[in-house]
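name: query_chain
kind: protein
chains: 1
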Amino acid sequence: MKFSEEFRDKELVRELARRIAALESPPAILMEVCGTHTMAIARFGLKALLPPAVRLVSGPGCPVCVTDQGDIDGFLALGSQPGVALATFGDMVRVPGSGKNSLERQRAGGLDVRVVYSPLDAVEAARQAPEKTVVFFAVGFETTMPATALAIEAAAAAGLTNFLVYAVHKTMPGVLRALLSSGEVKVQGLLLPGHVSAIIGVRAYEFLVQDFHLPCAVTGFEPVDVLLGVETLLQQLKGGQPRVANAYGRAVPQEANPRARDLLAEVFEPVDATWRGLGVIPGTGVALKETYAAFDARRRFADVLAQVPPPTPTGCRCGEVLRGVLAPPDCPLFRTTCQPAQPLGPCMVSAEGACAAAFKYGGGD
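structure:
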């Protein structure tokens, strides 16, 4: 394992930029699927190092951003139930639901909202406060799903009856298939997320080559990582031989992590999921299996959730940003009514959001 500083080496970055320019590859739109890539590209100014004919666009890889507004409204509704404490990762606290309601506003109004760094922190909160029902907002792709599964198993082993999970986890391969099948987005290559791939392995993306004939590269999040990914995509385009390249071999295996795979299969089962900006995509969400139904907030509070009204429009165009059809600066709300201090949508809130990256670092065109 290398230190991250080695993958920020200026000479290596310059050399990669020279190699990419020397390729003289055809014009290409490349999508960085992951929000962490989007933030790294903006932070390090990597777009400025690429040839004018190579364009990078953001994709649906920010887990906070793709969480449907209806799911946020449902979780917010649970906060008003007697004895309920809501637990969530920090990024979700400021994401607005309908009527600009948010966990931050609920907490300011006196409701019990707790920021945790791990699902196991929420389990510990339930252990320490048996009079409370602690509901954890389980957000994220395959990267964070194993931690949620471990928390559920830990709660079951401890015999806790006051720990629940409100699952909005989503899986990556299915959304890529849906996005590319729509025909709305025209891209010539994909930069695939390193941390998700550390769980599901490189082979999980082979359908992108077989069915869509797209060059792909799994890569990490430092400047050298990203540019290596771009280089291999352009090499594939120039050679006309698409494949799934692993440019993050120090962290990502070819096959799925067996322990994580078995754990997820033990606790979760696939269900349809609603994605912000993409609608319902079959089989891309997860629900708790019957064995762990006692920890499912959706089952415990089914009557409450059934009364939550449909989401009201906010004017936010985050969904189009997530589909790669709108650059953040092209949204009329960007930098005007939508800013980090007063965000109208999750793409401006999340540390992986494309709008937040463009606002902070520029280069969002």
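note: Residues 223-239 form the longest helix (17 residues).
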